[in-house]
Amino acid sequence: MSRPDKPLFPCGVTKADLARHYVAVAEVMMPHVRGRLVSMQRFPNGIDAKGWYEKQLPKHFPDWIASVTVPKQGGTVTHVVVNEAATLVYLANQACITPHVWLSRADRPERPDRLIIDLDPSGEDFDAVRETARDVVGPLLRDHGLTPYAMTTGSRGIHVVAPLRRTADFEVLREWSAQLAEVAAARDDRLTTAFSKADRGGRILVDVMRNRWAQTAVPPYAVRPRRGAPVAVPIAWEELDDDALRPDAWTVRTIGERLAAAGDPWADMQRDAANVPNG
């Protein structure tokens, strides 16, 4: 590893600490990222300096790093594919703090196996995010035959995720999820589908934009480039009842305690996979 002691976070978390995190969580993280295309969020000089997203596989990456080439507007792009835990460690050595992943897998990239609804608050009212995930979005998904799972993002919000059978393409998922977002916003005046913060009126954005071709999402157990090195953590649905829940409650220094106590609540989620309604 190059410069293992280089701090990436103001709290003192180094590049080596980041790599150790991905080693420690590999057993629970790999089922959620294996075979998925990656967009790398890199901060070579730490999170207080400018970072960037990198989709194209760099030429210096070793041959053992898996990749796949997919079409994009005006050409193609070759993405890293996470097929083994060593890839996560290699990416950490490249100061990739968060490996954002596709909602589909490399063998059938046009067929998503996840639906993601990102509940993004305009302010800091996380209790409203927690409550609307539990009382609005979850029941709405169940009404359509889907099983909701929840994840604190390590940032400010919650991802509500439903596992899918790979029967519909991204165009079908995009259209259906957009309709679902409108219904959710109509059911609770704390929610909106307006992307501009100026138009939200302090409401929570029901963001379904990830349900499209080539879009990515933060995977379970990924580190976020924020103060304290917080981690995106799957939670049991019942934990949405806990008013002490916070979106950045677990960090690279505390996630081990969480996993020892609760394991991975998403371990068997694929058994609940269902078809996109009308898809």
Can you walk me through this structure?
This protein has 279 residues and is of the alpha+beta class. Helix content is 27%, strand content 22%. Strands 1, 2, 3, 4, 5 and 11 form a six-stranded antiparallel beta sheet that branches. A hairpin with a 5-residue loop joins strand 7 and strand 8. Helix 1 (15-24) runs antiparallel to helix 3 (85-93). The longest helix is centred in the middle third of the chain and has 18 residues, at 126-143. It is globular, with a radius of gyration of 18 Å. The chain starts with 14 loop residues before the first helix and ends in a 17-residue tail after the last helix.
What is the structural class? alpha+beta
Overall morphology: globular
Count of extended strands: 12
Helix content: 25-40%
Strand content: 15-25%
> What is the CA-atom radius of gyration, in angstroms?
18 Å
The separation of the N and C termini measures 46 Å
Number of helices: 7
| Series of H and E elements | HHEEEEHEEHEEHEHEEEH
Give start-end ranges of low-pLDDT stretches.
none
For the report, how would you describe the main beta sheet? 6 strands, antiparallel
- Rounded mean pLDDT is 97
Spell out the blueprint of helices and strands.
Blueprint: H1 15-24, H2 26-33, E1 36-42, E2 52-54, E3 67-72, E4 75-82, H3 85-93, E5 96-105, E6 114-120, H4 126-143, E7 149-152, E8 158-163, H5 170-187, E9 191-192, H6 197-200, E10 204-207, E11 216-217, E12 233-235, H7 255-262
Parallel strand pairs: 9-10
Antiparallel strand pairs: 1-2, 1-4, 1-5, 3-4, 5-11, 6-8, 6-10, 7-8, 7-12
In brief:
With 279 residues, the chain is of the alpha+beta class. The protein has 7 helices and 12 strands.
